[in-house]
Prior knowledge:
The complex is a heterotrimer of chains A (694), B (320) and C (320). With 320 residues, chain B is an all-alpha fold.
Amino acid sequence: MRIKQLLIFTPLLLVGLLVQAYFWVPTYEDQTTGDARRLNKFVEASIGDAKLLNPALHADAASGKIVDKVFDTLLDLDENLQLRGRLAIHWQLTENAYLQVLPGAPLARGVVSDAPALLTTLRAAIGSGAIDLPPDLLSGMRILPARRLTLTVTAVADSEVQEQIVVEVPPRLQFTLRHVDQTFFARLRPVLGDDYAQQADFSTWHRPLGDAFMPSLQAQLPVFEHNPQIEFRLRRDVRFHDGHEFDAGDVKFTYDAIMNARNLSPRTSDFEPVKSIEVLGTHRLRVVYKRLFSPAVMAWAAMGILPEHLLNERKLADEMDERKLGEAARATFGMRESSFNRKPVGTGPFRFVSWQSDEVVHLQRNTDYWDGAPIYHDYFFRIIPDTLTREVEFRTGAADSYNPEPYQVARYRGDDRYRVYSSPSTGYTYIGYNNRHPLFSDSRVRRALGMALNVDEIIKYVLYGEGERTTGPYPQTTNFYPRHVAPLAYDPGGALRLLQDLGWQRNTEGWLEKDGKVFEFNLITNNGNQKRRNILSIAQDAWKRIGIKCNTQVFEWAVFLQDFVNPGEFDAVVLGWQLGIDADLFQLWHSSQSGANQLNFVGYMNPRADRLMEDIRREYDPERQTALAQELHELVAEDQPYTFLYAPRKNEVLDRKIVMAASDGRFEPVRADRRGELYFFFSRWRKLAHAPQF
Amino acid sequence: MHAQDSSTGSLIAHTESPWRLFWQLLQRDRLAMAGLGILLALAVVALLGKATTEWLVIFDPTTVRLVDKFRAPLSEASALLPDADRPLTGVYLLGTDELGRDVFARMLQGSFVSMSIGFVAVGISIAVGVVLGGIAGYYGEVRIGPVTVDTLIMRFTDAMLCIPIFFLILVVVALLPASIYNIMIVIGLTRWMGISRFVRAEFLSLREQDFVLAARALGLPAYRIIFWHMMPNAMAPVLVTATIGVATAILTESALSFLGFGVQPPFATWGNILADGKNFIFDAPWLFFIPGFAIFVIVLAFNLLGEGMREALNPKLQRR
Amino acid sequence: MGQYLLRNLLQRLVLLVIVSFLVHALVHLAPGEPAEVDPNNPRFKAEDVAKIRAAFHLDEPLHVQYALWIRDLFNGELKSFKDGQPVLPKIWERFLNSLPLFICATLIIWTLSFPTGIHAAVRRGSTYDRSTTFIAYALISVPGFFLSYLVILWVVNAFGVPVIGMHTFGSEHASVWFRSMDNLWHLVVPSLMLAVAGVAILSRYVRSQMLEVIGQDYVRTARAKGLDADSVIYSHALRNALLPFVTMFGLMLPELISGAVIIEQIFAWPGIGRLSFDAILARDYPVVLTVTLMAAVITLAGTFLSDILYAVVDPRIRLN
């Protein structure tokens, strides 16, 4: 019977066809020993896909990994976290300081008559040693002529109310400094006296103006002004992957792209303090800043340089024509929409080949790379969203590395096919208390809550030892972290006594109670992070033991942020920060940053800490900055706005066959840089057919 | 529930109550009876679970004992543990999870939650399906503007049918706060379409039958005709759908848990124990196999029972 | 005939509009916002959030947003929130990735179900019938991801070959033959997992359809005439039982898309299910909305096609 046979043989045939495919698939062994070309390829497995491959626009870690390989920055941090030049071969940080001459203002002795007189007085004081300046600081002083400015001033209460005003500004003195010094004007105090700026009377400079506008006007006419500037000399003969030569115009273009409001760049605030960028030659440029802002230098170490010739207005217009966009779409078309973000061209060690969304990003080595081509020929960034199958795929040899979870690490440690790399990370996990909440407004309560948690046990059992205790806002890998601050000791009895001293007593059911109210609050976190969820359960359990009733809830990220964190409507959260090597923590802890949608969402307010953060931002001297940062760290650790739990260690697992080429042509084990970045030496990695013995 | 009562004098002759016949047929299906037996046992377990983990805490599903994490089933609690934290009899029947919580206690607690998700969700979908299907079937010809009620309801039903159901659930659950009630409601509100079509078809045919016409002629109020005379006749197939629906709802919850949108702590369900346990399949396989097997058993029991009921109700098969 | 088709088509268009309203309202009324705002980035400020909201029209009233969505969809200028790329090519690319999976799963479902189902019907009540019944129910009762993990671990442990993803990475330089076999192998496990529930359901359905047909008079007549059992079953009965399956074909597609969400997540398959899941997580409204609408379009097209086939085969429908 034909139909019957057909019905029986078709499925058999299908199954046969599918199953025989097995015989063609390479096993782990085939992939390493049997196939020399496979050794030139590196496959990294990641949990999520990149979003935008554009250094000016990307905001996610996966895109960052690719962008870092395709694009070069002007500067970066070397193995020991010192700045070093990449596309810039030389850079110099200097400052222009401006002093507004205020005719009639009081000096330490006498009053100001005019600019030349003031200049003479200052020069004399410096010459005589009455003003104490470091010998190599000042390189020149001159008078800038009076100006007529047309300014737009806004009212205090309502920034919509604006007025135009013409101001006749008297001459200013310009000081050229060899390095940045935030105390420069304080040094002039022997001449200027203490009240110089307070007596500034602008009223004769312009037509009468309402009081409401005065603060705005004064802000635009600072008496003391610091303009730090960086002069870059750029590397010559560096080419983008399409062969076009890199020059200063590309740097300027990159800056403009970030500042262009239409591009919605997440890096705007890094470059907002820039006053101007002047191109001084094909490979020279000067960046002038509006004010002291020390993080600005580091910003160049994180900013990949875009190719101007592929993204300028003309190119974008061409692309719009090519896509045949309508009027409405043209109006909103910008760099963010450009297809460049899916096929980037940079100057970096790897050139982009292809990107299949949610599957793989393929890069190939840039054989003309100025710093020497990487050893690997191909780099694949694979996306495997599931934790378990990521491990399975890694073990079958179809991925060379991934970030294992701590419980997986424990297994790899006992496996001699693989080598586990564990390094401290620059992030930490914490429990943040809403400091505005009456329960938590007292730092002693927060301290007691922290003391009730056995963090060492959490690290041991939840993280399998892959974490370290941390005490405050700075990561341990930086110098800003003071070693002498001790973490909160686990002491539930002490915690209970501390709370009892504050008036909390156990009621009949065993809960702590004060003024008839039970100590009860909600602890929440985001969905999808098992460790945080475990901490939730552990904290709930630990606090229950000292009589605190803690209810826990888990919310999906978007809801978590929008309904709880951003408006500040929560009691306590379990969260983590991933930080850079950056002394500036203004946005995380300054009291001005505690409004809705801002990052100091716990509402930490401490005037002394505020002052420290402001000073840190203005301090360019690494040593002094470090001292200030350590002081800040200590202060925050004392106040305990968060319970700082631990800094998870960053784990990577690699096949033992992957090694690093040393300069003498031999091989050494792969190692990380000081901040714990394993891929720092990636260009020198290679895979051997057989695992070496070290 | 009884078929037509005597007040209207049923015009359909019954030599034997259809329910009794149904029961006899069902009893002959051994798989279905096994399913029923398992379900009754699990229902008892679920109630006991609720009682012993929440009302009178004998098995504590929340106590964290980090020193005793990943203990295999039937292993003893470690000596380091304070007495207050020890499980009943000092033995972890089903082992412990990654925080040292007693898996047996969590499974007990989860049994009630998992089953109630299934029942509540199906209850919701029956309610919506029966009401919409009933209205469309009984009042179908009433016009609202240019369209009839029937068109309105059935087009809405068709529209819902064209959207991939699991996808729809996922969209809604992802966007709503993840509470257990939302999950019940969402699963319930996305699975009523089959029931409403069924009830409508049944009503359309019942409407023309003599006993309904007679009831109308007697001037009985519409609600009485609908709920007293028509509904019981349409109910049997709905029950079959509902039985299988509970199984689907439990599976849907576990799938949602796998994607991270399931019921959130402090509620333990078999679905989220399984979804969490899958990460530890190499370290603590029981965390994966116990809930997986439990879900499999309960869902299978519901399915077998549902299938048995369907067969018993199928007149064409009965004849043979 | 033409009129019938036209009316049918119009009805479907109306349905599609209803679906689009439903989906749009659902997605936009839910809490949570596009997650373009990266909360781990300490440099992101409130002003930036406001700018993004404005750029994506999130502050417009709902009906305006709907109009903008439909307008952009039709002139092909709809952009994803996530990366600003046009939505339609994006969905198309992913759909093409999923297509082999769907085709392979469909092939498995349809070729495997018929012989097993028919055989069970012919031997009703035999051990074979009862064990396939049980296996079928067992297969639909296992949580899909549970089964997938078991199979993956088994394959990897027993055979030591990669099964995740669309091909073995790092073997791009191999010959075409190797690569296509490699691709085929990577298709096997996920499409089998995607097909499992379908095979179970369809083979049950085939069985019950066949049972119904076998019981009918013409089949008995054919038997009585002395035709051999096979030709009665396979040419007379099967032909008549086939018709209802035409509808099944259209209705199974949304199920496949739903199933793909989980299967593609596990197997790291960059298809339409992953795309939609990620879009849901990121609240990438344009993508979520468009994928849902596309799924509805496909379902409607499927049922439309089966309606046409029905009309061709069965002239009575045309006349109604």
